[in-house]
Amino acid sequence: MSVSERLEPPPPPAADEVGAVVLAGVSGCGKSTVGKMVARRLGWAFVDGDDLHPWKNVYSMHHGRALTDADRDPWLERCADLLENHVANGVPVILACSALKSRYRRRLRRDAETLLIHLACSREELIRRLGGRTGHFFDPSLLDSQFAALDPPTPGDGTLLVDGDADMEEVTNDIVRLITRPADRAARLAAQGTGAASALPGGGERW
């Protein structure tokens, strides 16, 4: 079995071992905005996964056609290669990438220095944000298809949850703490494992 086909993801990085971070979540959750803010705060590189899509995928999304797994395959490979190269060369990077399915997240984590963080947002907040977007190729009508495709992170897959409905500065602060403080990562995972409310602040359902 190849590394990219690993059934179980590696554990979250320990202290001083985070070499790459994937900010995941459905469109409108703030991956790119927050990713740039975190990258500036830490002095890391930032890459928007949307920029790695083949033109065929961009064309499909612009015209309201949901991507298939076959469409996403070359894109995910580009994303995984980028993360692996940054880790290998000691250049920390934040990658904004939807990573909706658990097998996508496993594929992106080729090594234990890659940390996955899922920005979980309410449907109402996502619709509000997407409605206010300009100059972006994602059609807001595709939001339901993203919900349908999403495998919400589970306690066992090593993905940390962050409340994406919060103010962007608050979200940035939370993510910086998770990246730089291993004790905070462990506490977040433990809270997620018990279903504690502190795992994801705020009431209501999140995606």
From TrEMBL:
GO-annotated molecular function: ATP binding; gluconokinase activity
Stretch forming the signal peptide: none
Keyword entries, A-Z: ATP-binding, Kinase, Nucleotide-binding, Transferase
EC number: 2.7.1.12
Pathway: Carbohydrate acid metabolism
Gene3D superfamilies: P-loop containing nucleotide triphosphate hydrolases
PROSITE patterns: PROKAR_LIPOPROTEIN
One GO cellular component term noted in the UniProt record for this chain: cytoplasm
Keyword Nucleotidyltransferase: no
Record-linked NCBIfam families: therm_gnt_kin
Family label: Belongs to the gluconokinase GntK/GntV family.
Protein name: Gluconokinase
Organism: Alienimonas californiensis
